[in-house]
Amino acid sequence: MVKKEKKYEPPNSNDRSPRNNYLIGFWCFDIIWNLGFGNWNLNLSRQENMVPQTTKRSQRDFRKRDVFYLVPLWLISLIAPDPYLYHKKEFKKKDLYYLGAIGLAPLIWSDPHFHHVMVLAGIYAILALGLSLFMGYAGQISLGHAAFFGIGAYTTAILTTRHSFSPFVALWASALSASAVAYLIGRPILKLKGYFLALATLGFGEIFLVMVRESTNLTGGVIGIFGIPWFSVMGFSFDTYLRQYYLIWGVVTGLFIFSKNLVRSKLGRALLAVAASEDAASSVGINVPRIKLEIFVLGAAFAGLAGSLFACIMSTANPEAFGLGVTVPIVMMVILGGMGTIYGPVAGAILLTWLMDILSRYQEYSLPIYSVILILLLIFFPDGIGTRLNVRILYLIGYWAKKRKRDEGKL
Q1: Residue 44 confidence (pLDDT)
Q2: Which segments of the chain have a pLDDT < 70?
Q3: Residue 400 maps to a domain
Q4: Looking at the structure, do residues 113 and 53 belong to the same domain, yes or no?
Q5: Which whole-number Å values give the CA distances from 328 to 146, 335, 386, in the listed order?
Q6: What pLDDT digit, counting tens, does each position of 245-290 carry?
Q7: Cα 213 to Cα 156, 319, 324, distances in angstroms
Q8: Do residue 311 and residue 374 come from a single domain?
Q9: FRET partner for 349 with CA separation of 20 to 30 A, picked from 12, 238, 328, 384?
């Protein structure tokens, strides 16, 4: 029997994706707060003090609180996944499995060493995600990503230890400073291509290290900056490995969802076109220099966030943590995980972080063993473990679940 082809139906204008309802809901919450709790607090302050100056101070403090919660909610509205994806089943079940595994892992393995290694793996995953957008989707090469990582760390260190800024404010300042530097250097060097671009970014990383070592009054020179406070939000301090685990992997989850939405957007399709052929992308009207600069700045913002979190967790920032010894592993995480996937860099970060931790116990033979393992992984997984393995474990789980139902006669 021949199946009838479905007739094309244009999308209905009433069936809009509810993504825009995030901001509408947040602004409604703002109005309710202003009309309800906000006015109640202001009236209470008037009845107690009956002083116009106190009332003005209360109004000013309330406006600060208003901005304080509206900005994060607006950022969440950009990161949060579209509920329409759940209806269309584009947000796959494997994402929920991965999220559940990340949430339950520290509860199953309560070893503090496990928590600390996974915290470092999460920080490297943020770096690898940002670099994957630039290398895997835009098709460019960067060997200076560790410099933006260091800019974020030193920005947080200077603001928190010398100017008494809170780590939460320093986090956003670190992302902004790394993005600003990326914009300034990206305009000239992104005109280069291939290995010339790689050498230019590598040179920028080395220049950053020289400036950090020589600027003793600002960065502390070779010794660095110590005594960086723990990351805290509204008085809640992330001062244990378990809390740091959930902080870091919560940020990784948010950036992962943001990256997944990004690569499915118009910008993501433009990135794929640029990676395939810059000339062909220009011929269809894509502004190639602007696209490359935007994704370069975004990757630097990811690195700035990672650097800020790294500084708060390690309580120190010194040049040794941001050299070429960090750049190479990050690039390897992207390559081993899979350059054309979002899952790959996260998997590569976890794999290489644990590999480096295990081999650190064998100092004499760590380098040759590490090299042999990387060579074998590149031979057997040339496209990355994220591309080859993808959902093999979940496939086996689904297979055995179906086999069990089949044996019971339910299928």
Answers
A1: 36
A2: 1-93, 383, 386-411
A3: no
A4: no
A5: 9, 11, 19
A6: 999 999 999 999 898 888 888 888 888 888 888 888 888 888 888 9
A7: 17, 7, 15
A8: yes
A9: 238
Residue 247 falls within a domain, yes or no? yes
Cβ-based neighbours of 315, under 8 Å, separated by 6 or more: 226, 227, 228, 229, 230
Residues 165 and 301 placed together within one structural domain of the fold: yes
pLDDT at 17: 41
Determine if residue 155 is left, alpha or beta; phi over 0 gives left, psi from -120 to 50 gives alpha, anything else beta: alpha
- Residue 143 contacts by C-beta under 8 Å, 6 or more apart in sequence? 198, 199, 201, 202, 205, 324, 327, 331
- What is the span of the domain harbouring residue 26? 20-75
Which residue reads 């990050």 in tokens?
330
What is the Cβ-side half-sphere exposure of residue 263, based on CA atoms within 13 angstroms?
21
Same domain, 333 and 381: yes
Over residues 135-149, the pLDDT tens digits come to 888 888 888 889 999
**pLDDT confidence of residue 79:** 45
Are 143 and 274 in contact by the 8 Å Cβ rule? The answer is no
Residue 353 contacts by C-beta under 8 Å, 6 or more apart in sequence?
Answer: 117, 120, 121, 124
Q: Do residues 332 and 388 share a domain?
A: yes
Say if residues 266 and 324 touch (Cβ distance below 8 Å). Answer: no
Residue-level pLDDT at 300: 93
Looking at residue 260, its pLDDT comes to: 87
The residue type of 301 is A
Q: Are 155 and 195 in the same domain?
A: yes
pLDDT at res. 327: 85
- Cβ(45)–Cβ(112) below 8 Å: no
**1 assigned to some structural domain:** no
Phi and psi of 315, rounded to 5°? 60, 25
Does residue 356 sit in the same domain as residue 227?
yes
